[in-house]
């Protein structure tokens, strides 16, 4: 009902048993056609659904034709995005499954992108992320590779705003992808909180080139000025806003000490995000923004997202929402 209400552009939505089907309206695909020639006979469908494993409340699958339709309608779907930049999506297919228990909603999604560029596996952050500040409202961590950074840099160069972006980076001493990778590192993380209405931000940057990172951090410190502390501690780049460096490296509590964190973040991950929804709800700033809708957060304790590349052109994403 939500999908139909919000609209799907040139796509149609219907269910066959417990499987939600998304397909271009001009594809000729219908419920009758699927039941007459079961989607269960589709080799891609069978392979994708089989990898979801477990018992699910509902599953959904998108075919390569759906991705091709998105590319063909790039301007309507993502205004200002050149269709060429979406070409990597051509032939993409995805499968999703939903599980609901008494205190946890879990959605697992797998995507197969045949045209995705090959890249080595990024670092696992599962032992890095839980050590972040437990008082964080929102925290995110990710792994990176130099090859992926090179690809991202090439994509930046294709953007109309690249000159301005390059100039901003150059002020920090960053003139190429190697510099950017040296600064951000193979594992990075960011935390955000509020104290007396003021932002409290902490960043950890674990670099494979600590000497070059230290040079870049020195330049960053000069550009950022007062109120932002920038240091390298035991080979780890630290940026602190609204707090001291020591509070980032040695917080009083850590994410692993937060009960809801362990419910929504579990297993290996190359990217992870945690939002303490219970703490967010208690903030007057959030109540002011949401107004009468503030109670919408009341049933929820936390949100967790993890993502991992599972093979060439294949990824798995887990979204978990813990209830109070």
Describe this protein with a few key phrases.
single chain; 324 residues; alpha+beta; 13-stranded mixed β-sheet; 31% helix; 30% strand; disordered N terminus
Helix and strand topology:
Layout: H1 2-6, E1 11-16, E2 19-24, H2 31-36, H3 43-50, E3 58-62, H4 64-72, H5 74-77, E4 93-100, E5 104-112, E6 138-143, H6 146-157, H7 162-171, H8 177-184, E7 187-195, E8 198-206, H9 210-224, E9 228-233, E10 236-241, H10 245-249, H11 259-264, E11 271-275, H12 277-281, H13 284-290, E12 300-311, E13 314-323
Parallel strand pairs: 2-3
Antiparallel strand pairs: 1-2, 3-4, 4-5, 5-13, 6-7, 6-11, 7-8, 8-10, 9-10, 11-12, 12-13
């Amino acid at each position: 009902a939500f999908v139909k209400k919000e609209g799907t552009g040139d796509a149609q939505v219907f269910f066959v048993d417990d499987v939600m089907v998304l397909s271009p309206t001009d594809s000729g695909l219908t419920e009758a056609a699927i039941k007459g020639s079961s989607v269960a006979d589709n080799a891609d469908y069978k392979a994708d659904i089989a990898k979801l494993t477990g018992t699910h409340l509902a599953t959904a699958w998108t075919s390569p034709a759906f991705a091709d339709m998105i590319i063909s309608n790039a301007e309507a779907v993502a205004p200002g995005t050149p269709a060429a930049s979406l070409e990597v999506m051509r032939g993409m297919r995805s499968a999703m499954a939903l599980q609901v228990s008494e205190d946890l909603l879990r959605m697992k999604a797998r995507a197969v992108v045949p045209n995705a560029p090959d890249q080595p596996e990024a670092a696992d952050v599962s032992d890095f992320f839980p050590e972040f500040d437990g008082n964080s409202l929102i925290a995110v961590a990710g792994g990176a590779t130099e090859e992926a950074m090179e690809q991202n840099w090439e994509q930046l160069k294709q953007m109309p705003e690249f000159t301005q972006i390059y100039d901003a980076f150059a002020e920090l001493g960053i003139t190429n992808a190697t510099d950017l990778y040296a600064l951000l590192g193979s594992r990075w993380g960011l935390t955000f909180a509020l104290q007396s209405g003021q932002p409290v931000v902490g960043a950890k940057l674990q670099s494979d080139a600590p000497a070059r990172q230290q040079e870049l951090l020195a330049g960053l410190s000069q550009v950022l000025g007062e109120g932002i502390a920038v240091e390298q501690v035991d080979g780890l780049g630290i940026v602190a806003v609204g707090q001291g460096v020591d509070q980032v490296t040695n917080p009083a509590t850590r994410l692993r000490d937060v009960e809801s964190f362990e419910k929504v973040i579990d297993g290996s991950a190359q990217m992870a995000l945690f939002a303490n929804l219970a703490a967010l709800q208690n903030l007057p700033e959030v109540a002011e923004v949401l107004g009468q809708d503030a109670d919408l957060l009341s049933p929820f304790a936390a949100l967790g997202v993890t993502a991992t590349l599972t093979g060439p052109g294949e990824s798995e994403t887990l979204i978990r929402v813990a209830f109070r």
